[in-house]
# Entry
Amino acid sequence: MNLGILISGRGSNLEAILTAVAEHRLAAAPRVVVSNRRGALGLRHAAKYDVPTEVVPHADFARRESFDRAIVDVLRRHEVDTVALAGFDRLITRVLLEAFPGHVVNIHPALLPAFPGLHAQRQALDYGARVTGVTVHLVDEQMDHGPILAQAAVPVLDDDTEESLSSRILQQEHRIYPLALQRLADGGIHLEGRRVLGGVPST
Ligand code: GRF
# Structure
């Protein structure tokens, strides 16, 4: 699996993926890390693991499609076959999806279809959910939507703040993202309608 990882910020999931590769828990070759923001902190993780980085500022493009075309060009240049969105804050279009059919993966800090979009942890708290969690899914054209590869549940505690809940969810994100990517790399999954069979057992 030749991975291209798309980030916008902190990059802790990127780090978890690169660590899993280094520790032979994920059989993948990270080919390039692409950020749409020059100052993304996560770029430093790529440097630490000697993975090439490229910055493609979304503000340079008038349309989402032309931005995605530029991203696809970078990914192709690095011979990527699987794209992992890891805190990438742009909505992606058909241009990217059609370039890597069935091989664009996203992680979201809630149990989808609950709480899509921004601030999923705060949404869960505000709603009064007693359980939330994390979802790794194949990406389709809707935001935070597509066949689910893996989920992990995280309880919401009475004294949780957005920060405490986010940090417990993040631990599960870092555990489950490499597992889900490995399952995809194994080729052991298949789609039956919306269902991914052979995905990672839920916890
Ligand atoms: C994570 O919570 C991820 O689920 C969401 O954005 C956040 C990115 O964090 N999509 P990081 O940049 O990987 O640290």
